[in-house]
């Protein structure tokens, strides 16, 4: 089994971190049955350190896996239908499905998944698809290279990320043809590259003239037509909490580090879950930090919780263990980036942007806020 650093992990190809191997699970169609959820929770306890991350690509990650526990973990996940035929198939099956999917959307996602599994396209590891064909697009701010969406006329369109317009969509062969076009245009020299980068170089797919429907704002925790959306503090759950959720109904995994419990009308208060849209923890972002990440210069999440009462109303605070900014790879109102000399403050930028203040000790951060 290979271990690869600095690369998008999968289940078959885990990534090493400060607390062991990270093993990523890609739920089919973004759904987990109660049995799958319960068994993932059990596997995280038995073969990992009992912590499960929700990722920005609507995946789950079991943390703390070891060289000895990885093989039995894969067997447990294989029995749940969550393991692909090989690493290539796992890498290609990089699909985010809107959690507000209707049966038509579920069918479109399943056909795209099957077409990708049957293909041998050498797509870059981060190259992905979004199936965003619910009542209105909700995934336009979520990274994806090829988007299947509702057009402004209500019909289905296929759109290259970065391109304002798409083409009429009929079946999955068209999505694969767009991926082939990306490769043929030189979108992935040396196996790396993204669609938006190719489009930014002035290349456009032929016949792209159809506008997507206007996007909705990202959802907040609370009631939705399909059930109840719950946010997860810092996107990390304990296995016990996941097992408790399994008893409440099937889950839909979202790219906003929220879980949709299908058909639920009420949920009990569970540790680390956020059910209220006004909860101030929704304005905190923090990566794994020390000691879970070997690149971190300081702990992050406990510090973010301590700083929450000092955070001005309506502002988003990001505490990052290093300049990579995994916990929020975009601008925040206030970002503290840990460095070997202390914390840098960046206003209105990303963790790697030029700071306004440098080398702050943790004790000074409340006053700076
Ligand atoms: S941002 Fe956080 S999780 Fe990402 S590499 Fe840096 S310390 Fe690790």
TrEMBL record:
Taxonomic lineage from the root: Bacteria, Pseudomonadati, Pseudomonadota, Alphaproteobacteria, Rhodobacterales
Main EC class the enzyme belongs to: oxidoreductase
Protein name: Precorrin-3B synthase
GO MF annotation list: 4 iron, 4 sulfur cluster binding; heme binding; metal ion binding; precorrin-3B synthase activity
Organism annotation: Paracoccus saliphilus
Keyword terms, alphabetized: 4Fe-4S, Heme, Iron, Iron-sulfur, Metal-binding, Oxidoreductase, Plasmid
Gene that this polypeptide is encoded by: cobG
Any coiled-coil regions, as ranges: none
Superkingdom to which the source organism belongs: Bacteria
Keyword set includes Metal-binding: yes
Transcription regulation as UniProt keyword: no
Domain Nitrite/Sulfite reductase ferredoxin-like as annotated: residue spans: 14-79
